[in-house]
Every structure is written in C-alpha cells, then in structure tokens.
Write a structure and sequence with these properties.
There is one protein chain. This protein has 4 domains: about 5-275, Bira Bifunctional Protein, Domain 2 (BirA Bifunctional Protein, domain 2), CATH 3.30.930; about 280-400; about 410-470, no CATH class; about 475-634, Threonyl-trna Synthetase, Chain A, domain 2 (Threonyl-tRNA Synthetase, Chain A, domain 2), CATH 3.30.980. The radius of gyration is 26 Å and the shape is globular. Strands 1, 2, 3, 4, 5, 6, 7, 8, 9 and 10 form a 10-stranded mixed sheet that branches. It has a 4-stranded antiparallel sheet with strand order 13-14-19-18, covered by helices on one side. α18 (about 480-500) packs across α19 (about 525-540). The protein starts with a helix and ends with a strand. β13 (about 505-510) and β14 (about 515-520) form a beta hairpin. It is an alpha+beta fold. It is built from 20 helices and 19 strands. Mean pLDDT is about 90; it is low at about 465-475 and about 565-570. Belongs to the class-II aminoacyl-tRNA synthetase family. GO terms for molecular function: alanine-tRNA ligase activity; aminoacyl-tRNA deacylase activity; ATP binding; tRNA binding; zinc ion binding.
Length: about 625
C-alpha cells in the first residue's frame, strides 16, 4: 500500500461514516494576517469548531497540507519534517468519544491492518484543582477494543517517572494530553474552548530505542520519551470545555478534532522508523544519490544532510505552488531559507552544481496525481528553484571572498568577531556552523556567544516587527479589514477586465491599514492600466452595489462564472459572494447589474458605498510571472 493509497483509504473510510470530504486549504492562509502558514490540520477549521456553520455539514474529513517554519532546525533526524500532510476528521457538535475512538481503532487495525499488539495510547490525567477529571472514558474505550483483539491492555499513570509498567494505555498531564489554542488550561483566556486529547503511538520495537539516540538507553522508556522507539501517529482532541470567570464549564457543542500524520502512518505501515525511507521520498532520494554520489544511510553526517535537502526541497515546491516565491519577507523568506540551507548541505556532501530543479521535478512527479496543481504550475516552480539556486551560488562565492578578507592577518588561535560572523550570516547566508568550519581550517575560533546574542537581538527585533505588522486584521473582523477584504474582490474582478482573463489571485494579505494582492501577469502594469483599474473600482464603489452571498455547489458556482483563489480545489458546497445583482453574470463593468462573483468564506461589507476612495499605492514584481499591488482606501 502506497502513501497515496493510505490517504485515499482514509478519506473513503470516513466518507462511509457520513463525512463530507473537504479539499486541502492553501499553505498560505487566505486573507488572514495573523499567521504566515497553515501549520496544522485544525487551523482552517477553527471558525467551525467555534460554532460557525460549515456549508458541508457537521461531519467532515480531509488531508490538509501543513508547513511548520519553527521545525526547520529540527529536520535531520529520522522523523521531523517541515512539510507534512495531516489527515483529519471532524465532528462539529455531532458524535463524540464513543464513536470516534472505535472508528480510529477500526481504521488502524482493520483498514491499515496495523498489529494491535504494537499500538499504545495516552489519555488526559485530569486536573482536580480546576474540576476537570481524568479521561477514564477514553482509556476504557481503548482497553476494551484492544482486549477484543486479545491484547492485554493495562492502564498506568506517571509513565514519565515509572516507564511502561507493562501497560498499553497511559495518563499524561496537560502538557501532553490537553489541547487549546492558548496551550495548557491555566493559560486559556475567558471564553476559550479546549479539551482533553488521546494520542495513538506505534511501537517500532526496542531496537528503535537504539536507532539514533543511544543516550536514551539508560533512561525510563515511555511513549513520550522521544527515544526513537515510539512514534505518535494520531491524536483525537475532544473539545468539550470552555474557560469561564469561575473556572471551566461544559460546551453546549462538543467537537471532535482528529489529526493523523500521513507520512507517519506510512512509516508505521512499512515498519520503518525513518520517514525518509517511505515511498513519497523515494524518487527524490534516488535522484539525490545520483547527483551527489552518496548513498543514503551510509554515513550519519551525509544522511543528515540528505534528509535536510529532501525535506526542504519538498516543502519549497509546495510553498511556491501555493504562491510563496523566494524572497526577503514573509513567506518568501522561509522559502529562500529552505533552498539556501539545501544548497549549503548539498555542497557539504559534494554537489556544487545545480540540483534544485532536478529534485523539484522528482517531487512534482511524485505528487502530481494527488495534487494536480503541482503539474499545472511545474514550469513556474522549477524556474523559481533554478533562479534562487543560481542567485545563492553567486552569493556563496561573494561570501567566501568576504571571509578571506576578514581572516587576513588573524593569527592562529584568534577569533572572528561576532559582528563579522553575523554579517556573513545576514549578508551572505553563511550559518554559524559554516563560518566555524571555515575558521577551524585556518586554526581560528569564532565568537559564538557574541553571535548568539546578536542573533537573539535580531530575532527580537524581527518578532516585534512581525507582531506590529500582523496586529489586528480579519481574525477579529475589524471594520477596515472587512472593507479591504471586499476591495480585493473588486480588484480581482477589475484586473481580469483590464489585463485579461489570465489573471489569477496568487495570494493576499490584509491589515486595517492597506491591502496587498498578488496575481499572475507577465509584465509590469502601465500607468494607463493602473489608472483604468482605479477608475473602474471607484465607479463600482460609487454605485453602492449590494454585497450578498449564497451557498451553492461548485458546479453552480462555475456556471455563474464565480472566480476564486485556486477554485479548482473546492468541492461540494461553497459560499459565493456577489457584488451587484446576484442573479446576473459578473462582468466587472460599473454599468452592469453584477460586478464581481467570487468563492470566499467572508466576511464583507453589505454595500460598496462605505468603502471610500480606492487608490493603488504600488505595483511591483513579486516573483517570476507574479505581480503585487498594494492599495489603500481613503
């Protein structure tokens, strides 16, 4: 069974349980200025978990693409990746523990045919001081299911202190088995929902404990000890509580949020603790071995480098496909960082010529059947990879020359200053370890403590800048953000009229101060085109068009000529917003009865007359074939 088979099997399985299949959302959250990436399966579902009606009903299932930028430095072991797919199923006030746990057990043991004797489970220990009991119901459900398959399933507490204790089911505290957006119960603000979770683990056997982390061998082994023996493959969140002024109360709508790592389930099914040996990585891994002359698994340092390259190229391909081109800001910064780390590690294992497009092509071919958008965007993706690699290789050469200048005259045993090391990092992309390696070859040291202080200062400034930049926005439905959101619909429709039907939205970012809109177009807009765009939009605003929405099938939306961000990925029932007469086709003409019709989740103003005057502040290149408009309402 391939990993693609597992994804299909999972979706089909929950569809049989009455769930509607929801397509994956973009890795770049649409019109949400509070976060750069979709980092979990539940992230696009938060509004519905909090009570908003989902157009497809109360039972949903999906495979969500995810990217976690905070895991970049963790990649290199046998299980961490920055990009992954999260299988999910959701109950929005429908079923609860008694249905979800048997369904998951059935999927693992009957559909995937995983050996129940190698499955372990964890549950919430409880917090008596705030009136939340231990989750004995989940523990008993797991035990009964295991015993049905002849597995002696003991339940134990404090495994982090006492180890496995011969049990199969374990209680952990709120740091391991509680979920809320704010973290542990004590950190939850008033009104925040949350609840206990129960996690599923696969046992690779005692040899897994020795696989790469032999330092763990003398410590108590338990499923959350990270020794390499156990791998978490899924997590049921039971959102059943809400923080109140007086403590915690039961939610009127109890939700289920399951998340299961697709790649990890594939590793369990293959009984292979190394994620990078599953079939999804095989074509790129073989190509990387061919290009570098190295054999994966032959040497620890080379294997670590190859894992970093394989992960980072896969993530970059998906991010570029969703509209994040390499750059110095926002999502583009992380794409650039992924590619430059890959190039540096490729050099360490002997590859000094171009390789990113070749690996990118292997990734695209691997996923094309499941994600047709990759094949559709292949030319643009590979061009971005090629250009970024060529640019960084030139930067590397410049950095080496700068390094040679810095060390001239330094005596053996002396140090490269923190300022100089940080300049190499910031200006030429040299990470600290690369500077240290080069310095060691010349019997020099590096002021690493000073570098770390400089890095922390830089990160703090960046964090403060990001907090300021992304403060507010659609996450709290501020008035100006809602206005700008509606203005993007006018802009999208108008650009199609002024520039042509080839224009497609590639991303947007909205704050209460301005809108930013990325779109496909091969050339710089002329002054006349910018003027015409402003003129048409302001004419539409002055006509004070009504803004309305309807729920309809994708087929109906297409028949009504609705547009939308990556509309081909929508399925089932969608929400369509119309600016103008909802019964007429949209033609982006101020004199027409309908100006814009677009698939969107909202929210929007009720009529365009409240928007004010629309003005384009800047039109610029974003990446190859992608332009960016920044505009304000005055």
């Amino acid at each position: 069974m391939t990993t693609h088979d597992i994804r299909r099997l999972y979706l089909d399985y929950f569809e049989k349980q009455g769930h509607a299949i929801v397509p994956s959302s973009s890795l770049l959250p649409e019109n949400d200025p509070t976060t750069l990436f979709t980092g979990s399966g539940m992230q696009p579902m938060v509004p519905y978990l909090l009570g908003q009606k989902h157009p497809l009903g109360t039972r949903l299932t999906d495979s969500q693409k995810c990217f976690r930028s905070q895991d970049v430095e963790e990649v290199g072991d046998n299980r961490h990746t920055t990009f992954f797919e999260m299988l999910g199923n959701w109950s929005l006030g429908d079923y609860f523990k008694a249905e979800q746990i048997p369904w998951m057990y059935g999927f693992l043991t009957r559909e995937l045919k995983l050996d129940p004797a190698r499955l372990y489970f964890t549950c919430f220990r409880g917090l008596t001081e705030i009136g939340i009991p231990r989750d004995e119901e989940s523990a008993e459900l797991w035990r009964n299911l295991l015993q049905t398959d002849g597995v002696d399933a003991g339940i134990a507490d404090f495994p982090e202190r006492d180890g496995l204790q011969g049990a199969r089911i374990f209680y952990y505290d709120e740091k391991k088995n509680w979920w809320s957006r704010a973290g542990v119960p004590g950190a939850m603000p008033i009104g925040e929902p949350g609840g206990p979770d129960t996690e599923m683990f696969w046992d690779f056997g005692a040899e897994g404990r020795r696989h790469e982390n032999s330092a763990w061998r003398e410590l108590p082994c338990h499923v959350n000890c990270d020794c390499g023996r156990f791998m978490e493959i899924g997590n049921n969140v039971f959102m059943q509580y809400q923080r109140t002024e007086s403590g915690f109360s039961a939610l009127p709508q109890k939700n289920v949020d399951f998340g299961g790592g697709l790649e990890r389930l594939s590793a369990a099914l293959s009984d292979e603790p190394d994620i990078f040996k599953i079939d999804l990585f095989a074509p790129a891994r073989v190509k990387l071995e061919e290009l570098t002359g190295q054999t994966y698994g032959a040497a620890a340092a080379d294997t670590r480098a190859m894992r970093i390259i394989l992960d980072h190229l896969r993530a970059a391909v998906f991010l570029i496909a969703d509209g994040a081109a390499p750059g110095n800001k926002d999502q583009g910064y992380f794409v650039r960082r992924l590619l430059r780390r890959s190039i540096r590690y490729a050099q360490k294992i002997g590859r000094r010529q171009s390789f990113c497009p070749a690996l990118g092509e292997a990734v695209i071919k691997t996923y094309a059947a499941s994600y047709p958008q990759l094949a559709h965007e292949a030319g643009r993706i590979l061009e971005e990879l090629e250009q970024e690699e060529a640019k960084f290789r030139r930067t590397l050469d410049q950095g080496m020359r700068q390094f040679d200048v810095l060390v001239q005259g330094l005596k053996n045993g002396s140090s490269i200053s923190a300022d100089a090391a940080f300049d190499l990092y910031q200006s030429y992309g040299f990470p600290l370890e690369m500077t240290e390696e080069l310095a060691a070859e010349r019997s020099l040291a590096v002021d690493t403590k000073g570098f770390d202080l400089e890095m922390k200062r830089h990160q703090e400034l960046s964090r403060q800048g990001s907090e300021h930049k992304f403060k507010g926005g659609l996450s709290d439905h501020s008035e100006m953000s809602v206005k700008y959101h509606t203005a993007t619909h006018l802009l999208h429709a108008t650009l199609k009229k002024v520039l042509g039907e080839h224009v497609e939205q590639r991303g947007s970012n909205i704050t209460p101060e301005r809108l930013r809109f990325d779109f496909s177009h091969p050339a710089k807009m002329t002054a006349e085109q910018i003027s015409e765009t402003e003129k048409l939009i302001n004419a539409a605003i002055s006509r004070d068009y009504p803004v309305s929405w309807q729920e309809m099938s994708v087929e109906e939306a297409r028949a009504k000529q609705a547009i939308g961000l990556f509309a081909e990925r929508y399925d089932g029932i969608v929400k369509v917003y119309t600016i103008g007469d909802s019964g007429e086709p949209a033609v982006a003409d101020p004199g027409a009865p309908a100006y814009s019709r677009e698939i969107c989740g909202g929210p929007h103003v009720e009529h365009t007359g409240v928007l004010g005057h629309f003005r384009i502040v800047k039109e610029e290149a974003c990446s190859a074939g992608i332009r960016r408009i920044k505009a304000v309402l005055e």
